[in-house]
């Protein structure tokens, strides 16, 4: 799968959450999408030619930093981790 196709699939995944997700999943999905979109946007602005694994690593570093800063409670963190695993499985 190409990076562009992966990004498109991830965006569709986030869009689909709006239809089927619980309120908590919507929050976690929106939070995760923010980190994902930031990583994609940074790569585009910097004109980086990333592989999927490199993009995922950037997202994970951002999430770990946020977790360490106490941005999420444990329940929300668990939801973000689960949704992130689902997004990564799209590759």
Total separate domains: 1
What is the first-to-last residue Cα distance?
Answer: 6 Å
* Portion of residues within helices: over 70%
Q: Would you identify the regions where 5 or more consecutive residues have pLDDT less than 50?
A: none
**Structural class of the helices, strands and pairings?**
mainly alpha
What would you call the shape?
globular
Counting DSSP H or I runs of 4 or more residues, the number of helices is 4
Beta-strand content: under 5%
Q: How many strand units?
A: 0
Radius of gyration: 13 Å
Order of helices and strands: HHHH
The major pleated sheet works out as:
none
| Nearest-integer average pLDDT | 94
